[in-house]
Amino acid sequence: MRKPLIAGNWKMFKTYDEVLSYAGDIIQRISDVKDVEILICPPYVYIHPLIEALKDSAVKTGSQNVFWEDSGAFTGEVSAPMIASIGTEYSIVGHSERRQLFGETDETVGRRVHAAFRGSLTPIVCVGETLAEREAGTTFDVVESQVRKGLAGLDADQGASLVIAYEPVWAIGTGKTATPEMAQEVHGFIRKILSDLFGREVSEQIRILYGGSVKGDNIDALMAQSDIDGALVGGASLDPASFERIIRFKR
Ligand code: 13P
C-alpha cells in the first residue's frame, strides 16, 4: 500500500514571523493524523527554522529545488548534502515554474534527481504539459518524455523511493483543475512508464502526486482515483485551515 503524501509547496511566500505562526497552528490542527505523510517545502531560508518549529510533530520539511553538484564554486546554489544535513528528506525537482522561468530542462532535471539521491534526498520529480501541448493532443508524449529523461539512469532501488508529481501547467494557480478522470488517465499512464523502467512491482510502490489548484473542495474526488497517491499543493497550503482540510481528505 502506498501511504498518501500531502505536500505543500510554499513557492516564494511568507515572512519569518508568518512561518513560525503557521507552524504553531498546523501542529495543533493535525496532531491526530497518522495515516498521511505531511510535507511542507518552504523557501530555503525557512527550512531549518521550520524543522525546529515542527520538531514535536510528524510534519516533514523539504526543499523546492536542489543543485546538481555536491559542493564547489557555485554562488547562490544549494546542494543535496547541505539540505540533507539539516534533517531534510525531500526535494522538489523540475517544477514547471523552474522549467518556464529559470531554463530548467529535462537534462538538468535528471542531473538534479541524481544529485538528490547521492545526497540521500528523495526527489519529487514534477512533470506536466502546458495548455498548448494539451490542446495539440501531445500530453502523453510530453509527459512520457519528461518522465523518461528525468529518470534516466536510475536503478530500481532509487525508482522505488522516488516520488512523481503530475502538475498540468494550465492548472497551476489558475483555479482550473484537471477533472479526477483526466488526472487519473495521466497518472495511470505514468505508472505504466514506471513499470517499463523499473518493473511492475517497483512501479506499484511509487507515489504519484497530483498538483494544480488542489483545494478542499476537489481533493476528495482526486484522492479517490486509483493512481493518485497524494497532492502537491501550492496556494491552498499557505493557509493552515485549508491545508488541514486537504490533509483530512475523505476516503
Ligand atoms: P497551486 O496549488 O497554487 O495551483 O500550485 C500548484 C503547484 O505548483 C504546486 O507545486
Kindly report the name of the CATH homologous superfamily.
Aldolase class I
Number of helices: 12
Which strand order spans the largest sheet, edge to edge or round the barrel? 1-2-3-4-5-6-7-8
Oligomeric state: single chain
Average pLDDT score: 97
In this entry the ligands are:
1,3-dihydroxyacetonephosphate
* CATH fold-level label: TIM Barrel
Radius of gyration: 17 Å
What is the CATH first-level class name?
Answer: Alpha Beta
Ranges with pLDDT <50 over ≥5 residues?
A: none
Shape: globular
- Supply the helix-strand structural class: alpha/beta
**Count of DSSP E strands?**
8
Helix content: 40-55%
Order of helices and strands: EHEHEHEHHEHHHEHHEHEH
| CATH architectural type | Alpha-Beta Barrel
Total discrete domains: 1
Main beta-sheet annotation: 8 strands, parallel, barrel
| Proportion of strand residues | 5-15%
Distance from N terminus to C terminus (CA atoms, Å) equals 14 Å
Report on this structure.
The protein is α/β, with parallel strands linked by helices. The protein has helices spanning 16-30, 44-53, 80-85, 96-101, 106-118, 131-135, 139-150, 156-161, 180-198, 200-203, 219-223, 240-247, and strands spanning 5-9, 37-41, 60-63, 90-93, 122-127, 163-166, 207-211, 230-233. Strand 7 (207-211), helix 11 and strand 8 (230-233) form a beta-alpha-beta unit. Helix 1 runs parallel beside helix 12, helix 5 packs parallel to helix 7 and helix 7 runs parallel beside helix 9 (180-198). The longest helix is centred in the C-terminal third of the chain and has 19 residues, at 180-198. It is globular, with a radius of gyration of 17 Å. The relative contact order is 0.15. The model has no long low-confidence stretch (mean pLDDT 97). The structure holds 1,3-dihydroxyacetonephosphate. 1,3-dihydroxyacetonephosphate is lined by residues 9, 95, 167, 172-173, 211-214, 232-236.
